[in-house]
Every structure is written in C-alpha cells, then in structure tokens.
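Example 3.2
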Amino acid sequence: MRGQTLVRAGVGKHDITAAVRSGALVRERRVWVATPDADRDLRMAARAGVVLSCVTAAKRLGLWVLDAATTHVACGPHAGMVTVSGGVLHRFAPLVPRDPDDLTDPLVNVLQAVALCQPYEAALAVWDSAMNKQLIDKKKLERLSLRGQARALLDAVVPFHDSGLETFVFPRLRWLKLPIHPQVWLYGHRVDFLIGERLVLQIDGGHHVGAQRAADIAHDTELMLRGYFVIRVGYDDVVNHWEDVQERILAAIAQGLHLAA
C-alpha cells in the first residue's frame, strides 16, 4: 500500500516509521510499504514504479496463457527512466486510467498489452479465456481505441473455448472449408470439436488424468460405437507438433471418416 494511502486511512506517519524500523514493514521506492512476506511481483512493481501487465497480469487473473515465465510490466509512454531486471517493459498509454494505488493493470489494459506483445494465436487464447470467464464485455471493447492487432483479436474472440489449445485449433483448420463446431454435446458429454458430421477432435489439458482420463476414454468408446471417429491429442501435440496432428485429421477426412454413414 502507498504510505500516503495509509495516512489517509488514519495511520500516523510515526507509526509507519516505527513499523519500518521494527521490520514489520519495508519501504519500496519510498512511496510504498509492504510486509516482508508480501507478493514478490507486487513488491518488484512498486520498487520499479510500474504495474504488472500483459501475460503476467493475465496469468494472475486465471486466464489461459501459453508462456508467462518472464515477468511483464507496464508504464506510461512518458514515465522516464524505468529499470526492470529480467522482465519485459511495455510503454503505452492505458486505455483505462491506472489507479495509483493499484500495482496491476486493469483487464482492458492487460488485453491491449497482450495484443501488442504476443503472437496472434497466443494473444487470441488470452482474449478467448477472458471472454469464456465472462470478464470482458465485447460491446464495451468495440468502443475503445484499440491498437495493433487488438482490433483483429476483437473480431475473432469467442466465448466457447475452454482453453487456449482450443483457440489454436480453430483458425488452423478453417482452411478446410468444412463445418467445425466447438463444444458440441454428444451423448452425455461435450466434445472439443466436431469436424463435419462424425469426426471428433478431443484436446487433453493437464487435468485429463486419473478418473477424468478414464471417463474420457469411456466416452470415446461410446462415440465410436455410434459411428464417430475420435482423434485425441494433448498439449504438446498442439503446441509443438501441430503438423502431426493436422496430418492425422487430413488422413481421417481423406477416408471420409468425417461423413455420416
């Protein structure tokens, strides 16, 4: 919290100074105070005079992010000298004003930063995730002065994809000129994609283990007994070996397995 915010809340300056001297609080950049065990990323942002943004803030919001290993922060375009060791700094005018008492960018600014920073598919996965969690209003976003590829992302974003892996698949298969339906309910369960009339593509995330895995396999069997053909792939297949996944899908289509008998 900013020191002056504590003072406005009724905490005396001498009490704050005493807490710092005793080690109960630490100062960050003289403006902020924190407990010694406070969130490390927030303390870093306070110390550097920035806010957490882009994929770092998206991950903290529970959005699906392909890679958030590096800390991403943001500041205004005229913030002066800012040093962020080992991180990525985004300088841009925020679409939504940044509250001086908040160390994390508002969601709209996070999505704009993602659009400016990430490749199209990775950015769309974050936007889809925000839409899926009902954290954004598409109509409100349409009224903003979005920059870079954000306008294209807004045109493409949909609320149906449960994970970024599903976001990756749809644009990659659109060229097939076949009906591709996401999140279709078939015999008691949703399937990730129904291609044509009978070809099912299932994408396993990290939660497809144990009882969930057994239930998925059982459902695959039920679908195949009813004339569907199921292709099941995992995270690594979609992210790192898409050409192999596409080859399997094309082979199935070539054999007419996407058509009703």
